[in-house]
# Entry
Amino acid sequence: MTGRGSTGVVRARAWIADHRITVFVPLAIALSWAYWLPLAIGSATTEPGVGWPTHMPGLLGPALAAVVVTALAEGRRGLRDFGLRLLRWRVGWWWLPVILTLVAGAVGIAISGVDRATDLTEFNGVSSSAGALATVLIVFVLNGIGEEAGWRGFLTDRLLRRHGLVTTSLLVTLVWAPWHAPLFFLVGSFQEFSALEIIGWLIGLTAGSFLLTWLYRGASSSILVVATWHTAFNFVSGATAASEGLAAAITSTLVMIAALAIVVVELRRRSSPA
# Structure
């Protein structure tokens, strides 16, 4: 019995190793939805500055799925590589997009004349009593690392081995967008979207996918850099009271322009003769 059981485990791990993406995608969705769906079915709604109900823990689904699949398919060696990419910060000028995103958001907030610093900490699903530093850390771990360790650190990382930037970004979007589905019934700001706004959100998400793929590839596969950018973008693109309106419009527009430029350059580079 022991021998047969061990053989079955070995075969299962070998199958997972050959079908890592096939296993990762439904697992990431299942882990997040297992938390979100009960709240959504119970008609819960998350609000800025309110710690409960909260959708935040569900954002860890992609990261947890990445760790599980990596552990089963690649063992300690794979987890070590994953950990190194999670902590990699020496990537030269590739930190610039993070800084520029924060600057663009700050300019938008300043022009809007926001004078309540507390608005910056009123993040959806996080208690405002946590304070500024704790709010940033919570969002960075649950939202930044939670998503990017999975979407870029695992899915994008493996797709880039077989596809170019454009195809990889589109394939990730096809998973990343529907993964958000329960949030349209749970998160207050998502519930208010009109059909046109949902289309705009999809366009913005696709643009973000192009930018994050480009950033991940250029920054030596650093999960830390893309997680930091994702966190910074969320803070200055409408996730807090202070970043609504002009700040969100400026940062979102810049991301779309950057994404378009990335696609044009990438397609021209691929079509150019060697």
Q: What stands out?
A: The chain has one domain: 2-271. The CA atoms of residues 121 and 130 lie 8 Å apart. The two ends are 57 Å apart (CA to CA). The chain is about 70% helix and 0% strand.
